[in-house]
Structure formats: C-alpha cells, structure tokens
Amino acid sequence: MSRWVIKGLRTGIVTTRYPAREENAPGISPGLPQSSARSDADSEVLALRCPTDALRQADGQLKVDRARCIHCYRCARGVAKPIPWETGFEWASLRGKSSVFPNAFQRSLHIRVVDAGDCGACLNEVKLLNNPFYNMHRVGFFITPTPRKADILLVVGPVTDHMKTPLLKAYEAMPTPKRVMAAGACALSGGLFGPGFVTGPGVADVLSVDVEIPGCPPPPLAILHGLLAITGRRQADTIPGPAGIAAKEGGNER
Ligand code: SF4
Q1: pLDDT tens digits for range 115-154
Q2: Pocket, ligand 1, Cβ cutoff 6 A
Q3: Protein residue with its CA nearest to atom 4 in ligand 1
Q4: 93-247 is classed in which CATH architecture?
C-alpha cells in the first residue's frame, strides 16, 4: 500500500473535497484584508502602516488593493482599530467573460508554470497542488514541463528583465486556445520588488492576463479556484479587461 495512504489512515487527513464541498480545515488560508468604512483619521493611521501602498482612503472608505497586499498583517495586528479580515480563499478574478475556456477543455488542462523571478513562496504553493491533500489531478489539472503541450501559462513573480524574453517565448510556443494566469502580489503588481531597476510592475506589463489571483503567496486553494474559474466550473469576479501587451497586439488568440 502506498505510504501516502498509510499516512492518511494514521493521521485522518484525507484529500480535500473542494470544489464539491466547502473546505474550512484550519490553516487552509491566511485570508485577506477587506475594504471598509472608516473615519479619515483611522484610515490615515492604517494607510501609513502599509508597506506597499495597498491601502487607499476614498469616499469615507479605506480601500484595499488586493493586487498589492503582501499579507504583512500590519493593518490587522498592533493597531487600535484593525481592518476586517476575510477568511476564505476564492479570490481569483477573470479579466472579462471571454477568459473562460471552451467546454471541451474543462476536464483536462495542462499548465506550464513559469517562475518569472518569484521569491519561492508562490512557486511552493503551486507545488503543493500536486500533494495528496489538494491532488489537482482529480479535477483535471496537470503540470507540464513543455509549453508546447500547455493550455495555461501560470506565472509567478514580478517578471524580472531577464525573464521577460523566456516568458514571451514560452507563451509563443503554446498552442491556441491558451490562457494566462498571474498568481501572487508580485505577478499582479510587482509586489515588494517592482517596478524597480531590474523588474517591471507584473505580468500584465508583458502579456494579456486572463486570471488574477491575489495573495502573498496565494494559498493552493486560491490557485485551484483560479483554475476552476477559467474552466467555467466555479464563479469568480470579473475585472474589466483586457490588459497588457498581448492584448494590445490582438489578445490571447481566442
Ligand atoms: S496586510 Fe500589509 S500589505 Fe496588506 S493591506 Fe494590510 S498593511 Fe497593507
């Protein structure tokens, strides 16, 4: 018998039932800060504590830019009036309804992961999707080492100058239809690193992004939610799009 099965029987830990059932095991997600109504003075205190300018005051609200949030908790701990914090993980957003794959692709999608200069955290969460608890194969998602067999380009990291060309080459080698997912604060906004002297402000500066997944890093189930959303198997917020260079040049060849 597989050692994983024995370990599962000993510990009582089984594969998550998400998306068929809700998953609320402890530690499954660090959650995200929420926009909320605030007095100007309270907003100013919290906004000054945020290291990435993810907090902005507008119309009596303290708004959270999820693409910039790095989960440092400075707005939630050690302050008199902490910001509210959501505990879920279904954070993915689609850039326009056309981001969803055609029906035929819903149950067997291959993913080429590109580390475009990440610190290792997002990449590690992607790796966890293959472990027995998340086991993304059961829902039809597979990592492939070659872009020629990939349907989805999953990018982590802010896209350093040196990774720009390899990223574009991987994208160009993929057959159509293809989609681009950006996972993590760095991939969405540059995070703590970009824009800087060796890196840009995220993936959308290079390619048209179809799915955005915030988090620093996004937990595995947030990434899985993005994959399910892009196959039309789970609802997600829609952001007006498209954005990025590929979009300007005709989009992701849909
Ligand atoms: S957790 Fe940190 S980065 Fe995120 S909004 Fe709060 S202070 Fe800003």
Answers
A1: 999 999 999 999 999 998 999 999 999 999 999 999 999 9
A2: 33, 49-50, 52, 54-55, 64, 69-75
A3: 69
A4: 3-Layer(aba) Sandwich (3.40)
